[in-house]
Amino acid sequence: MAALQIRPATLADVPGITAVHCSTVTVWRDPATRMAVPYAQLDLFGRWRNGGAWMSVEMAAVHVASLLQAGQSVMVATWAGEVIGEAEVYFTHEPGLYAVLHLSILYVHATWQGRGVGQALLEAGVNLARERGLSALTTQPDDAARGFYARHGFELWRMQHELQLETTTSQPAPALMPVTSSEHTPGPEMALRIGRYQCGPQGWEVLWPSLELPGWSDLRRSVWQGNLESGPAVLGLCQQLTDPTQADAYVWVTPEASLAPALRALQALAGAQGYHAVDVLLAKEDIPEARQHFQLGFQTQIELWQRRL
Which CATH superfamily hosts domain 4-139? Predict the structure, then answer.
């Protein structure tokens, strides 16, 4: 008799993973015109713009392979050998309260939703966090998923505000060393304190994309490391997809470090590269200190939730 099974994914599961993600898309849209179009008319970039790397087997294969090679966890739910759900879980390799397991993706095939598949994948992530001796499983739920996570023991962990920082060319850029390889990852004493849209490893992936996808991999990216007044730091800038005059910022520093030196460095580094503004995602508790030194225009807010273990 068939039964629900949760197991680690392999590359052979990629077609099934793509089918799960594509099943949740009700309308495919051209990335430029936003008009509804058939899936077959979209190139790889167009499919990526409709939901990420999972929207074609070619991209999903690269994405899943890069996660497995990095030692991260990809899990699938199967029924009678068919993939009906997928979850991706990242170990953060960061210190203190940032040393958690992060549930980045949890998708269930449209025809299987509401039948316990998502809960089974979620509990597999919880068990993995416990096996690693971690204190929490975190996630970033969208509006539709908040009820699901609340019912399964999650609550708000960090409220984060995306703010815009104007750049400057009137002050010299700090003497930081350019980083030219993805292998020079931030040290274990540092956490992603600016730009934590999901988790630390995913911030690093944005700066070193595995997908050689025209329109995405062609964006300008720069990474620096060195010491600021507040201590060791790794800073990254990624040109925004929709506005080449702006960049998204990613900053790793120690959990106790002041963010003012990093924000000042971002202003100068981004200004020297010709950007007009930088988007910085800050935890709510870090905003009062930042506003003492900088004018920051509000953009939006993002919630990170956690389930304590």
Answer: Gcn5-related N-acetyltransferase (GNAT) (3.40.630.30)
